[in-house]
Amino acid sequence: MKISEAFPPWDKLTDGDREKLERTAVSRSVPAGTLIYGGEQDCLGLIVVCSGQLRAYILSDEGREITIYRLFEMDVCLLSASCMLNNIQFDIAVEAEKDSTFWVIPPNVYREIMEHSAPLANYTNELMSGRFSEVMWLVEQIMWKSLDSRVAEFLLSESAIEQSTLLHLTHEKIANHLGTAREVVTRMLRYFQSEGLVKLSRGTVELTDPARLTKDFARR
């Protein structure tokens, strides 16, 4: 896939800006599990996803992870280029959840174009606003939602993404997404299993009653 097909505001750029992006953007392909960017690394650049699935997360001082958003085809990760944004101090990590291909736009190139391109500046502001809303939604979930509701919502969301009720997830991976301990997730999943809502096997969670999981937990 070309950068012109993957970058949403492409048609609003000038010919010169398009040429510069085509010349400087770097295409990468990585297998699932690859750490693409860590918050302590130098500014990577703007990530534009072509295929696969990425996860952006933050890491506590104790080493606990929590997912702040996911990235799918034609999604853009702005915070991996936060060095080009004034007054933004937000260290995140980005990893590939599936085999993925993406473009990386150098931060100096993106900033240079954004400074004279109103359409790109507007797109960047909309993107940042959307990501900020996702982070605020996450904060609300952590503060006000019970863990059983959060686990149920995560399982249902994963089922929708994978279009399957059989999810290849470890308890540790679920805990990393939700920012909690693996033991806590294990207890919750075993409770769901005792209620006939899921079936647990090594490395998998099968949703056996998604409708009741939604009604009794996710909507609370």
Textual characterization of the structure:
The protein has helices at 3-6, 15-24, 107-116, 118-144, 147-162, 171-178, 182-194, 210-218; strands spanning 26-30, 35-37, 46-51, 54-59, 65-71, 76-77, 93-96, 100-105, 166-167, 198-201, 204-207. The protein is of the alpha+beta class. It folds into two domains: 3-142, Jelly Rolls, CATH 2.60.120.10; 145-218, Orthogonal Bundle (Arc Repressor Mutant, subunit A), CATH 1.10.10.10. The strands form three sheets. A four-stranded antiparallel sheet has the order 1-8-3-6. The protein has a four-stranded antiparallel sheet with strand order 2-7-4-5. A three-stranded antiparallel sheet has the order 9-11-10. α3 (107-116) packs across α4, α5 (147-162) packs antiparallel against α8 and α6 (171-178) crosses α7. The mean pLDDT is 89.
